[in-house]
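Justification of resources, computational component.

The compute hours requested in this renewal are based largely on the per-chain cost of generating structure records like the one below. Each record pairs the submitted sequence with a full structure-token output. That output is archived, and it is also reused by downstream analysis tasks.
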Amino acid sequence: MKYTITGDNLQFVNVQIDEGEMIQSVAGRMAYMTGNVTMEAKMGGVFSGLKRAVSGASLFLVNYKSEKGTGVIGLGGGVPGKIVDLDVGKGSWVIQKTGFLASEMSVTLDITFQKKLGAMLFGGEGLILQKASGNGIMFVAACGDFNIVDLQPGEVYKVSTANAVAWQDTVKYDISASGGIKTALFGGEGLFVTTLTGPGKIIIQSMSLSDLANSLIPYLPSNNS
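The structure output for this chain reads:
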């Protein structure tokens, strides 16, 4: 598999696969493909599909296969934002429930549970997240721009709720108070922030999908206008 990621804030991942090769993506993300590429929706087993659905992700994955030579598939994210390529063979990743875009077939998707009650109640991603393991390249897409930080052992980043796109499973995930009551009420960040403790890489987005939706509300037509 060869690929390029093109564009700025409405990006494509352009994947080139040889005859007989396959990749998988979430449903509805294909923008184009060459005529020799076939696509088929697969649940990957009822239990696997249901686990993805419980996490809030797509019930089905779409498999793309090239026939009679090299094929090209163009995939795009569901919101204005970035796409990043991650080598899962160098370590498993935990991903926000809508973050997975596509991968090689050798990447295994599963669900993982928040280990602490605080993370479940106040983390902004709920009880269940996705986990990617195995080998191969995975593509993650999310709203906004990305900042990728390689945390050193014991290094801590406090991230605004829901802005943590993904992190390696060597990173500890928890919730801590954002500050005093006054800060919580008037600081605009709520009562809690996500704490990510190294070692491992983390991906932070500049704007979450809920942030984007809220910023558009004043400009939406209403019955009074």
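The chain has four helices and 19 strands. The mean pLDDT is 84.
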